[in-house]
Design a protein that fits this description.
The chain is of the alpha/beta class. The protein is 24% helix and 24% strand. It has helices spanning 18-26, 38-43, 61-64, 81-91, 123-127, 146-153, 165-178, 215-221, 254-259, and strands at 14-16, 31-34, 51-52, 72-75, 97-100, 136-140, 157-162, 182-186, 201-207, 222-233, 263-272, 275-283.
């Protein structure tokens, strides 16, 4: 690693100016994280190759920003939001975090203006935040925790489950560093009859995962009035990318039937951010078990 990007011995973000940042970008020495709004990202231009993760969603960064030895260069428009975001990355355990002093207002090199999806949580979750109320949440097949971390940062008591031991262990370490209230368990969701509890969670989140026999357990796990927020691929995705196995792909109109008898409050099916998906927000009735 070049001396100019050596980690700060105190574990703090290191501040770099636009000249040094341009050199590091040209040499491919850094991961780029833009923490401005999507509107700023496209209208004001961004450093080519940067991932977009607005600062209000920065808690999800440990789930999406690589940990491969390269420093992470964080920037915003004037260097204020990026300093806040950089501190979160340091707290989450990243060794080499750089903050662009003065932000994009000082950047004189090439800019890109194309739009791109936010790098962290599902857009479906963000768009339906107004419906998510309660205290306890379950993230099913949570992976590295892009949704579990965001919910915990918002004050939810979160349980995350996944069969990937390494992902759960890394997420447990990150949650501890960030002092988040999270219960994390290794669970093989496709072996035998999975019990997720009865009437425990105000919110169950599932994204990019499908195991049809699990739906009854997810319905039971909801409290009366609780929300199941679900989004995954349809069979049309096989024509343009992965996954291709029909076991993991929904048929047209299948998802509302799978969540029944929950009440579908919002639904969408088709192309989203270049992928073919179906998504629902479904509510459990208050009269009794689903």
């Amino acid at each position: 690693m070049p001396a100019s990007v050596a980690p700060d011995p105190a574990g703090n973000p290191r501040h770099v100016d636009a000249t040094e940042a341009e050199r590091l970008v040209d040499e491919g020495q850094v991961h780029l994280l833009d923490v401005r709004t999507p509107q700023e990202f496209t209208s004001l231009g961004h450093i080519p190759g940067a991932a977009l993760l607005p600062v209000n969603l920065i808690a999800t960064a440990p789930a999406v920003v690589p940990r491969d030895g390269k420093p992470v260069l964080v920037y915003c428009e004037h260097g204020i939001r990026s300093q806040q975001a950089a501190q979160v990355l340091v707290q989450a355990g990243y060794d080499d975090v750089l903050n662009l002093v003065g932000g994009m207002s000082t950047w004189r090199a090439a800019r890109g203006y194309e739009s791109q999806p936010i790098a962290g949580p599902s857009r479906w979750l963000l768009e339906n935040g107004d419906l998510l109320k309660g205290e306890r949440a379950l993230d099913v097949a949570c992976g590295r925790g892009r949704h579990a971390l965001l919910l915990a940062a918002g004050g939810w008591q979160v349980r995350g489950i996944d069969r990937d031991v390494e992902a759960i262990e890394q997420l447990r370490e990150t949650a501890g560093r960030l002092e988040f209230d999270m219960e994390l368990d290794v669970v093989d969701l496709e072996q035998g009859s999975v019990d997720l509890g009865d009437g425990i969670y105000d919110l169950v989140v599932v994204a990019r995962y499908l195991h049809r026999p699990l739906f009854p357990a997810m319905r039971r796990a909801l409290t009366p009035g609780g929300i199941l927020l679900y989004e995954t691929f349809t069979i049309a995705q096989a024509e343009c990318g992965h996954p291709k196995n029909p076991r993991f792909l929904l048929q047209p109109g299948e998802l509302p039937a799978l969540v029944a008898p929950l009440e579908v409050v919002r639904a969408e099916e088709g192309e989203r951010d270049g992928q073919m998906v179906s998504a629902v927000v479904a509510r459990k009735g208050s009269a009794g078990p689903a």
